[in-house]
Amino acid sequence: MTSYSSKYCCQNLPWMITRDDSIHHMSHSQKRPELPPLPASGNEEPSELYRTVMSHSFYPPLMQRTSWTLAAPFKEQHHHRGPSDSIANNYSLMAQDLKLKGLVKSYQPVTINVPRERNLQGLPPASRISAEPNKKKMKFSSRDKEEATRIKLACHTSNSSLMKEMATSSDFPRSRPMSPEEQINVMLQQEMEIERKEPKPSDSDLERYCYYLTNGIRRDMIAPEEEEVITRISKLISNKPLTSTLEALLEGLFEEKEHDYYSSLMKSIVDYILMDPMERKRLFIKSIPRLFPQRVIRAPVPWHSIYKSAKKWNEEHLHTVNPMMLSLKELWFSEFADLRFVRTAELLVGKLPLQPHQYESVIQKHCMDARQVLLSRWVPTCAKLFISRKEEWVHFAPKNDYESSRIIEEYFASVASFMSLQLRELVIKSLEDLVSFFMIHKDGNDFKEPYREMEFFMPQLIMIKLEVNEPAIVFKPSFDDCWKLIHDSFLEIIRNSEKIPKVESLLFPELKGYNLTLGTVNSEEKLVSDFVDQTFEVFQKNQVGPYKYLNVYKKYDDLLDNMAEQNITAFLKENHEIEDFVKRISEIKKLRNEIASMHITVPLAMFCLDTMTLNYDLCERAQNLKDRLIQFQVDVNRDTNTSICNQYSAIADKVSEIPANTEELVFLIEFLKKSSDVTVFRLRRQLRDASERLEFLLDYADLPQEDIKLNSTLFLWPDQIEDIFENSRNLLFNKRDQAEMDLIKRCSEFESKLEGYNKELEAFRKREVMTTEEMKNNVEKLNEISKNLEQALVEFELINKEEELLEKEKSTFPLLQTVMTNKVPYEQLWVTAYEFSTKSEEWMNGPLYLLNAEEIAEEIGSMWRTIYKLTKTLADVPAPRRLAENVKIKIDKFKQNIPILSIACNPGMKERHWRQISEIIGYEIKPNETTCLLNMLELGFGKFIEKLEPIGAAASKEYSLEKNLDRMKLDWVNMTFSFVKYRDTDTSILCAVDDIQLLLDDHVIKTQTMCGSPFIKPIEAECRKWEEKLVRVQEILDSWLKCQATWLYLEPIFSSEDIIAQMPEEGRKFAIVDGYWKSIMSQAVKDSRVLMAADQPRMNEKLQEANLLLDDIQRGLNDYLEKKRLFFPRFFFLSNDELLEILSETKDPLRVQPHLKKCFEGIAKLNFTENMEIEGMISSEKETVPFKQKIYPAKAKGMVEKWLQQVEQMMLASMREVIRLGIEAYAKVPRNSWVLQWPGQVVICVSSIFWTQEVSQALVENTLPDFLQKSNDQIAQIVQLVRGKLSSGARLTLGALTVIDVHARDVVAKLSEDKISDLNDFQWISQLRYYWDAKDVKVQMITTEALYGYEYLGNSPRLVITPLTDRCYRTLMGALKLNLGGAPEGPAGTGKTETTKDLAKALAKQCVVFNCSDGLDYKAMGKFFKGLAQAGAWACFDEFNRIEKCCLW
User: Fold this and answer.
1) Residue 872: is it exposed, middle or buried by C-beta count within 10 angstroms (0-12/13-18/19+)?
2) Suppose 367 and one of 356, 496, 527, 723 were both cysteines; which one would form an S-S bond, judging by CB atoms 3.0 to 4.6 Å apart?
């Protein structure tokens, strides 16, 4: 407040008075001394005295320039007194001239107590403080005693005046304390009175007062602030490293504190000096600003009458002096003082540790015993005592029924209170004993590994079992249950102390209706909680040891988490030799023996661990693994032996078969040969493996009787199979000789059959009779010959196949081919002649409506061509040739009737066409069901054929168009839309419309073509209507599919309430579209036929309106996404769908986690606390890097991009901080330990920094060979680590580090070989070098210097660096120096993209790989470059040459 008021005073001065016009300017006459002017000479410097006097003329000095003390007021120069006489003389005007030497040495202290006036009760604290000196003991000489009694305090500041006025001006009411409202009114009234009396400071007063506050006292006159204050303040500040901004703020706060300290002391000194009226006059200050009044209101406390009444009541009703109270006390101390609810001494000498249920039952038993003592001995003994000494209390009882029983009731209430105190004492001591019982283990049970049983010799209290709860070891009971057990023992003591009857319940059994039990300790009391807390602290300390002892079982984790089971499973899936199984079984056996030899009980202070169950379980698990390996070999042995026996048995059965034919005979001979030469040898090798396996099993397994019998059978088979082979071989060779004899006989019989078929065919050379019956017989005879020849052909193939099997020369049988060739023309001739004879009669006399003119014409043409060829083929055979010529003449004659048949049988002939024909012929013609071709010929159709043909052609065309239209309509009758349910909703969507669109396009084109035909006139109206319907369906379908595609894209977006909240207008429009869409789809599903579903009222208009709204929504959506991308530029590298998935998860930050990889290459997920605060980042390799500060997504209020931007900033800051800490730790920890303690990226970066530093130092000192040896040693250490047991993350880190270290070693070797010693040598500066400069990592190569990007890349592998990689690095770094890009060129798969990505990893830059295609447009490229420019990322455009040039201009 002091500092603030002085600042306020100085800032609000009206600085309008000039130096010359000031009344304090002493250079002109104002009844003040004046200094003569300066000498006229301009070259003469004024003296120091002159300058001092001049400055003092305006503002007289406040402090002496020199003094014996650090500082002294100027006014003390007039009094010539010492510092001790000057101190605080302004506070008492009566004593301001008092000096120490005037005081008498010998004096008696006199205490003057100035009583506080009653009217001070309502004053604020300031007024009470002013009266404090009256209370102090003041010492005076004897001659001043009388004067001292008349001393009155005087205050000269405005604040003291206020206090004085408040103390004397008003007379407060004395009857009762004032209310708060009355007190504030009195204080306000006094403040107004003082304000009227005291003059307000003038502008001059304010100016001079402010001057003295700032310039009146030098800083060196004030004692500096104590260092302890600074130390206490510093301890309140966090020791964590501060950012540059916070460091600057902290420095500013320290400066402000120091300024406030000196300002407040300066103001206090000035105010103290100005308390002297003479000093005010000397300094020309009449009045100073008045302090803000302090107002304190005291609440009324009317307690005096209550105190008096309470005192009187105690005098009348206090019964503690009654003799019975002493008797009760003596009884308690003589018989029950040692009673306890829990006899801890008995527990300690008993059998410990106790099982949890035993502990619980013992506590309950002890408590019940103590309760029984209280109920059966204490209370009855007290009752007997009252009965035996009735004269001590019976006089309190009422004498008759009319007297009050109040006194006797009060008496026994006092007795009950006294006994309750004794009961409470018992409970408290019992609780204390129980606490002491546990306090013997107050030091806890922590131990230095390995565990030593002799360290814990004190008796343990509770036994806890260790059991397996996969995949962990658990305590049974758990520590929570153990604590509940201990906590319940405290409550058990209190419960057993409750409901102990009062003594009057035994003295007066008839008493009813009020509480007759003694009070005891309440479980909610603080002393109980203190005991419980004290015990809980000991309990917590004793939890450390059991948990630490679990480390002993760490090496058996693979048995608990089924990893050992999985390893055995993986081992069994691979192929291993018997020796591998023996080795694995020996390891498991050793492990089991090790577990079996472990401690069964583990003493650990308060607890004792029972590990028997755990050890047995682990042994069983190890035994199961061993049994599984052995059982696997047993199963393999059984399966393999069974398989070998089955193969032997199958071979024996097969070679023992009797062949049914030659093919089987040949197969069996080959099988016998292969089995005896190949298969048996292979089986013998398997037998050797089986014998080795059997030896293994005899050592480790107990084989059942079935397996022993199987093994015996197996080893008997080799001898048995040889005998079977010999017998089968003799039988099969005999069968082969018999088959050859049978084949010779079969060939002779087949030749005879062919000669007979040839004789039958020769008979047809002389036949030419044309009767229908004869033609039918000849056709049947030829069909029979054809069947016989087909069977002969099959027989021929079978004979050849058998000859091939018996390895004989194949027979040709040329007669078979000759007969088949000669049969063909005779067969064609007689079949054609017979068919024409029968069908021509049907065509001439059959009804016209049953005939098909086109089929008849085609059939007649085919017959004519066949007969024509036969006349040429059979030219040398007279009889068949004449038959062919006669048939040809008949066909030619019938062909003349084909045009008439085409007209008469035309299905398109309508009544109008027959009318036209009737007009041409001259009489009416109306065909009926019996009209035939012969009738038409009789009517003379042949004469008018040329005129009738156009009518028939027109009818055919019209009929064709009509049929096409009907066919199209028929196609659409059963054409339906296919619908599928959209996700898990009731809404359906169209699917599989390709067939509908193809059919629709085809029919629209057909219909339009038909409408342009000259023959469409009869059905033109119907055709036009059909065309309009198809075009309308096509338009609706196009709009429908467009609306569906857009709706499907936007529906998941606007189903998110977060998106709708951010885009309310678009959400409203989408609601309209959604209503249209669902209405249309519900109607379409009811009737899915295409023509009906697309014929809904106003369907096309609704779809067009919906598409317009969807276009507006998409434009708004794109604008919304653009804003988000501008806020967080990494969104530019995501597609709209991916970005919307992220933005739709605004409520739950955890649901954004799956998309983090799209924005941050190295971050797979973030580390969230239970309060949804982000503490760190986790890579895909499960590597965790803590954030420098927590991030609070809730503060983003649903703006995902806002807290993602904070994640980006914190990622960069945290990586910089972790690298800094890694650099500090590198020199303190061995390198092979250091590499396992830090994230992979930090390890590579820091290692590269120190490599650069050490190589530079080696170049300067010319010690490269030594450093080369050091590099090799470091690589050897890393290799040693890799060969050991490592976590997957550490193995990845060391893999990447090894790649970098090997390249670094090669560089050092090359520098050493070329004897490089200059830091500016190109061979050195051309390497990628890392420097830690100004708390920043800088990467240099040749003349290029780039700042390290601090992008978190995860624990990812690094590319092997080849000379070509170095060249690419140099080229790309040079391009960065010139603000250019790089374009590595080369064949596919040579590492262009990977090299670019690896350089980005080396510089910790975000690198976005983009696969280019010719489908990219300038908008997509612009969006991508916009993101790169804002995010500061690198881009690798793969297949850049595919982009069209126009997109890059």
Assistant:
1) exposed
2) 496
Q: Rg (Cα) of the chain, in Å, rounded? A: 60
Length of the chain in terms of residues written: 1449
Q: Which two tokens stand for residue 618?
A: 């682990």
CA contacts within 13 A on the Cβ side of 866: 20
Q: How far apart are CA 10 and CA 209, in angstroms?
A: 9
Cis bond leading into 353, ω under 30°?
Answer: yes
Please, is 1230 exposed, middle or buried when counting C-beta atoms within 10 Å of its C-beta (0-12, 13-18, 19+)?
A: exposed
Quick check: helix, strand or coil at residue 1371? helix
CB 725 within 8 A of CB 681: no
Residue 1022: both structure tokens together: 């119907």
Strand partners, 498: none
Rounded to 5 degrees, what angle do the CA atoms 1370, 1372, 1376 make? 110
Smallest Cα–Cα separation from 1120: which of 1043, 1056, 1184?
1056
pLDDT digits (tens, 9 = 90+) for 11-49: 333 333 343 444 334 333 333 444 455 554 445 566 666
For residue range 139-178, list pLDDT tens digits in order. 333 333 333 333 332 333 334 444 444 444 444 444 456 7
Residues forming a β-bridge with 468: 473
390 in helix, strand or coil? Answer: helix
pLDDT at 136 over 70: no
Contacts of 923 (CB under 8 A, 6+ apart): none
Give the pairing of strands 1329-1333 and 1434-1438. Answer: unpaired
Contact indicator for 608, 601 with CB cutoff of 8 Å: yes
Helices and strands, number each (H, E), in the chain: 53, 14
List C-alpha distances in Å: 590 to 524, 562, 570, 596, 613: 56, 19, 21, 10, 20
Strands of 973-1104 (E only): list them: 978-981, 988-991
3-state secondary structure of 1408: strand
Is the CB of residue 775 less than 8 Å from the CB of residue 837?
yes
Mind spelling out the 3-state secondary structure of 610-638? Answer: ECHHHHHHHHHHHHHHHHHHHHHHHHHHH
Give the tokens for residue 775. 């033609």
φ/ψ bin of 638: left (φ > 0), alpha (ψ from -120 to 50), beta (otherwise): alpha
Convert the pLDDT of each residue in 510-559 to its tens digit.
777 667 888 899 988 899 999 999 999 999 999 898 988 888 888 888 88
Q: Mind giving me the DSSP string for 733-794?
A: HHHHHHHHHHHHHHHHHHHHHHHHHHHHHHGGGS-----HHHHHHHHHHHHHHHHHHHHHHH
For the residues 1141-1162, what does the mean pLDDT come to?
Answer: 80
Name residue, tokens 């198809």: 1030
Whether 806 contacts 666, CB under 8 Å = yes
Q: How many CA atoms lie within 13 A of 834 on its CB side?
A: 16
Query: pLDDT tens digit string along 989-1012?
Result: 888 888 888 888 888 888 888 887
What single-letter amino acid sits at 1164?
Answer: A
- 1332, 1276 Cβ separation under 8 angstroms: no
Q: For residue range 1121-1139, what is the model confidence (pLDDT) as tens digits?
A: 888 888 888 888 887 777 8
Residue 950, judged by CB atoms within 10 A of its CB (0-12, 13-18, 19+), counts as: exposed
Q: Taking Cα atoms as reference points, which of 470, 208, 500, 449 lies closest to residue 336?
A: 500
SS3 content of the chain, % helix, strand, coil (to 5): 65, 5, 30
Structure tokens at 903: 């007209």
Q: What is the mean pLDDT of the chain?
A: 80
Q: Which helix (H) or strand (E) holds 1409?
A: strand 1407-1411
- pTM comes to 0.41
SS3 assignment, position 111: coil
